[in-house]
Amino acid sequence: MALPYLFEFWAMDHQLPPGGDWRTWVVMGGRGAGKTRAGAEWVRTKIEGARPLDEGPCRRLALVGETVEQVREVMVFGESGIMACSPPDRRPEWQAMRKRLVWPNGATAQVFSAHEPEALRGPQFDGAWVDELAKWKKARATWDMLQFALRLGEDPRVCVTTTPRNVGVLREILQMDSTVVTSAPTEANRAHLADSFLQAVRTRYAGTRLGRQELEGELLEEAEGALWTTRALEDARVPVAPHMDRIVVAVDPPTTGKQGSDECGIVVVGASTEGPPQDWRACVLADASVRAASPAVWAETAVQAMEAWGADRLVAEVNQGGDMVAQVIRQIDPMVPVTPVHASRGKAARAEPVAALYEQGRVRHLRGLGTLEDQMCAMTARGYEGRGSPDRVDALVWALTALMIEPAAHWRRPQVRAV
Fold this sequence. Notes:
single chain; alpha/beta; Rossmann fold; Nucleotidyltransferase, domain 5; 2 domains; eight-stranded mixed β-sheet; six-stranded mixed β-sheet; 14 helices; 18 strands; 32% helix
C-alpha cells in the first residue's frame, strides 16, 4: 500500500523540486495545476526520515498563507494538503490551540497568516512553505519577515506555490539568482480535474489576459500606474459585439518598412452613437496588427480588415508618411475613405482621454485581443513601459478618438447595423 504515497512515481515534472543550490523554489501554475500537492509533498521530503521516527532534513517549518483559515483548510486539511498526502504512520497531529502540526519524529510546522507579518518576528525556522503569495495584501512585509526567520539549519529553503500575478515582491523573487521556477498550465493536471470545470473555464476565459494568468500560469506584465489594468479589461469583456452604427479601422504605420521594424498597429473598433455623446458606447472588435516588410503589406491587411468587418472608414496616422500613407492605401483600393490624423501630443497624453472612456464603462472588448491588451497594461501617464513601441495601443487610441472623442464633423452616418 506504499505506492500511493511515493509521489516521485506519480508526480508531473513541475511538481518536483529542481536539483542544484537554490534557496527559493517557485511553483507557478494555473488553477488546479497541482501546486498545492507539490507544496505538501515538498514538506514531506523536508520533514520525514527513512522510518517514521527518523528525523528529516528539517525540524521546524513555517506554513504561511493569506489567512490562518486558508492554511488550515488548504495547506493542512485540503484534498491535496499535508494530511491527505501523508502515510498513516507518518501523519502529523494537528494542534488547533497552538496552530501547528507535530510529526511522529518530533518535527513541527507552525501556521502563520500574511495579514500578520509581525507574528514572524521572533520565531525561527529551517524551511517554509508559502502558498498564493501573489494575492497577499501584505506580501512584501510578510516575505521580508519570513526571510529573517529562516535562520536554522545548514540550508533553509522555501517552497512558494502561487498562481502568478504581477506584484512587485513576486517579480523580485523570480529575478533572484537563488530562485528556481517550475510552471504548468491548468491543462497539465486535467486527469484530476472535472471535465465540466475545464469546459466552463475554457469557454469563459480562453483568449483573455485573465485566462493566460489563471489557466496558463503566465506572469503578465502590468506597469505600475498603468492606464489600463487586467481586471478592468476583464470587466470590459463581452462575448459578442453589441449593436453598432459606425466601424473604423485605425492604422498606426511603422516609421520604416524594413524587416525588423516596429509593427504596424491595425485595430478595428465599432461604436453605437445614437443619442447624446455621453450615451455613446464602443467595442474593440479585432486586432489585425502586422509586422510588415513593406507598406503594401500593412495597407493590404488594413483594407482586408475593413472588408471583413464592413468598416466605414480608415483612420491613419500620417506624421511619418504624410500623403504617402493615403496613397499606399489607395493603391490597394482607390475607393477606401481615409481620414488622416496627426499626432500633436505625446502617446500617453493621447491615451489618457481614451482610458477615461474605459473608466466610465463605455468601451467593451471582444476576445482575442491579448497582445493589444498587454500593451495597454504597459501604458502609463509617464509613457509606455513595455518592450518596443505601443503600435497597437496607438491604433486603438486613434480609433476611439475618431469615434468617441473627436468625431469628424464631415462623418457621413451609414445605415444602422448589428454585427
